[in-house]
Write a structure and sequence with these properties.
By secondary structure, the chain is an alpha+beta fold. It is globular. It starts with a strand and ends with a strand. 29% of the residues are buried.
């Protein structure tokens, strides 16, 4: 099982477990959380299928998708997920989601830095892409703090973000 953490950090990133289902469903609940997703992407069934996919990723060789649980060290609570998808050829797609109860506490930045460092150091990625709903100000601010550049709207629905080393 993959586990990433900083010695003095508040979070650990780890592979998901089957027993995470209830906690993961709780992460994805809430009107504010779902406002940038299509309604069908907010159902419990959709979230359960996502978790099944995250578990299946762990057994693939070579592993190109790394969606990890974000867990608070002090209480062991699962508060979100962060991932790199399609890692290969020096590139990967970055994504993150946090429970509403974990917003505005610096957890997204801490988790993102851990995941991007893993991508650089262990997966040899030099470019990271992310896609963001134009109204998702929190993601845009996080991307800016992480050094991503904003790219023109690709299809009118998502803003492309790029981080290159």
């Amino acid at each position: 099982m993959l586990i990433l953490a900083e010695p003095d950090g508040r979070l650990r990133l780890r592979d998901f477990r089957e027993s995470d289902l209830d906690a993961y469903l709780a992460v994805r609940k809430g009107a504010a959380f779902g406002r940038h997703y299509a309604p069908e992407q907010m159902s419990a069934d959709f979230s359960a299928r996502l978790l099944e996919n995250f578990l299946a990723q762990q057994g693939r060789t070579p592993r190109r998708d790394w969606q990890l649980a974000i867990e608070r060290i002090d209480d062991g609570a699962l508060i979100g997920s962060v991932g790199l998808r399609g890692a290969g050829g020096g590139e990967a797609e970055f994504g993150i989601e946090l429970a509403e109860t974990a917003w505005r506490q610096g957890y997204a930045r801490e988790a993102a830095r851990l995941m991007l460092a893993f991508g650089r150091e262990r997966l040899a990625c030099r470019r990271f892409r992310a896609h963001c709903a134009p109204g998702n100000v929190a993601m845009l601010l996080l991307a800016q703090r992480l050094g991503f550049d904003m790219q023109p709207l690709r299809d009118g629905r998502r803003l492309d973000l790029l981080l290159a080393a």
